[in-house]
Predict the structure.
Amino acid sequence: MPTRSPSASRPPRGNSVFINCPFDADYQPLLRAICFTIMACGYVPRCALDFSDSGLVRFQEIVGLITECALSIHDISRVELDKTSSLPRFNMPLELGADLALRIAGSPTQRARKTLVLDAEKHRYDLTLSDISGMDIEAHANSVGKVIKHVRDWLNANRGDRPILPGAAAIAEDYAAYLKIASGIIRALRLDPHDDLPHRDYLDVVRQALPQIERARSA
Amino acid sequence: MTAAATSRPQAPRASKGKLTYRGVTLQHPATRSRFSIAEIRKAVESAIAENADALSKRK
């Protein structure tokens, strides 16, 4: 399977946040909100979409990506059977396991990793993945507002003595503002109205949009 | 009156390529867009101008 390398400029490890989540259309609103929040907080989202638009990447590359990030977010909410195969998907728990193995038995740098686990329902992991009890686990109820708050609060709690981050409410309002202008951005980029921005375009758009949204909303 | 005294005060110039949002310095993504930064900036400006009333707090 051909994959492409991320751009030549690798972001600093301490600012890089690995995201392990479904890459399907159902999850996309949450993934977009997570990436928006990470960018708004001055960090860089990293995920398999860095390599391939489908997110299909060799496990070795995933582990390499995890090691390049000091922080990681794992969403284990997709516990339903796959609609096509009627079988469960194990990729998310597998990548969480790789991350936890680095925390337990990796180099001193890797043992200092920070990990946030997300699920849709509170304490469902007690039934699906009880070995992770005791970690930072938050329930988002498939809500964009809740996922923004959990990601922002977790990043803010793991900043050491760096300045406090913008509040989750402000980021959520700015994300709502972004959604209002998203179709206009797609039109201005001369894409078809039904097109969605691929991940790599979305991140650059968010980086350019954040300061402009802040200015427009304070006008 | 000197020229300097009559010149308008100017906003401090941002360092090249550096963007900030609510006091946070924004990082560059690890990936590269198919579009140039200029194209994206212009598209965002255009979309914000179209929706200026909806975005402004003074409604």
Strands of chain B lie at 20-21, 24-25. Chain B touches chain A through 36 residues (CB under 8 Å).
